[in-house]
């Protein structure tokens, strides 16, 4: 796997553009990631959780009728919907939560739009005994009541964000503000394709 340089760049891309208070936390995260990436005990725990808790490897299903209806190309579906929590999101959150625990963090924060990342984060936080706060735009809270219920049922505090467009972008902004203020004990399990290296 290609790793970025010390500034977080992959060639001309990447980098770290955050509040100064997060620089030390990001360096701590990078060091922990590099340490546990090659730690046999950590990797064994992650593999065991992926297999026995998440349900991986997820099955592959041959869609015979769909294959026939599309000219005979053989189409297979990877059934990530059968993972614990009902989506692929838990594949990410379980590893990050295990890393957070190894780093001594006691609190997890996340942002979510449709709620699947929030549910996956709340699930692994509950499993590992970590406090969990999920930020969600007010519009998304109203649209995704079932997922909000699931997060709360799992012990997460769901914070409705009423600023801006009241959607994912604003939830991400609030989560970043929280992390800046609570960096010592908090691990941010980011769920969208945004944010600084690492």
From TrEMBL:
Q: Name the EC number(s).
A: 4.2.1.20
**Cofactor field:** pyridoxal 5'-phosphate
Record's catalysed reaction(s): (1S,2R)-1-C-(indol-3-yl)glycerol 3-phosphate + L-serine = D-glyceraldehyde 3-phosphate + L-tryptophan + H2O
**Domain Tryptophan synthase beta chain-like PALP: start-end pairs:** 55-178
| GO (cellular component) term, any one | cytoplasm
Q: In which pathway does it act?
A: Amino-acid biosynthesis; L-tryptophan biosynthesis; L-tryptophan from chorismate: step 5/5
Q: Name one GO molecular function term.
A: tryptophan synthase activity
Q: Per its UniProt entry, which superkingdom is the organism in?
A: Bacteria
Q: Which InterPro entries match?
A: Trp_synth_b_CS (IPR006653), Trp_synth_beta/beta-like (IPR023026), TrpB-like_PALP (IPR001926), TrpB-like_PALP_sf (IPR036052)
Query: If you read the UniProt record, what top EC class would you report for this enzyme, in one word?
Result: lyase
Q: Which Pfam families match?
A: PALP
The record's family statement is: Belongs to the TrpB family.
PANTHER family assigned to the protein according to its UniProt record, in alphabetical order? TRYPTOPHAN SYNTHASE, TRYPTOPHAN SYNTHASE-RELATED
Oligomeric state and partners? Tetramer of two alpha and two beta chains.
- Record protein name field: tryptophan synthase
What broad taxonomic lineage does this protein's source fall under?
Bacteria, Pseudomonadati, Pseudomonadota, Gammaproteobacteria, Chromatiales
